[in-house]
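re: the backbone from monday

yeah here it is again, tokenized this time
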């Protein structure tokens, strides 16, 4: 339960950062505000879920993978080695909509099989967790 709460917290923070970074301008913007990346915030690894079958996704141990899906509620996943990463389901929480994601837990490699319950399609990817982003 603790890992699930941590994963949900990280995904919620990433969503908040993405939402606020989309509203701020770069150094050359009229407002003069800096972007999230200029402020030292690590952007999540964002991938289109349907484009990842057979691919390798690399993520730093201090980061997360945001799996962009048309309907985030229909996806589930099996992580072959749950000591490497955990799957965080997508859906609505607190009035906000969240994509599914992968939360790295330790450096290593694992296969992740994602299944779409609405059409029984699957996406199989290799997740490489490295020491840093």
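seq for it, each position gets an aa:
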């Amino acid at each position: 339960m603790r890992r699930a709460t941590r994963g949900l917290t990280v995904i919620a923070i990433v969503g908040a950062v993405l939402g606020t970074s989309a509203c701020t301008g770069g150094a050359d913007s009229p407002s003069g505000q800096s972007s999230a990346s200029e402020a030292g915030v690590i952007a999540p690894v964002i991938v289109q879920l349907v484009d990842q079958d057979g691919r390798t996704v690399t993520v730093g141990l201090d980061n997360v993978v945001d799996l962009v899906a048309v309907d985030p509620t229909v996806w589930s996943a099996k992580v072959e080695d749950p000591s490497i990463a955990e799957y965080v389901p997508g859906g609505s929480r607190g009035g906000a909509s969240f994509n599914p994601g992968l939360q790295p837990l330790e450096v290593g490699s694992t296969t992740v099989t994602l299944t779409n319950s609405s059409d029984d399609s699957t996406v199989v990817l290799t997740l490489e967790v490295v020491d840093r982003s």
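Residues 115 and 121 are 6 Å apart (CA to CA). The helical segments are 2-21.
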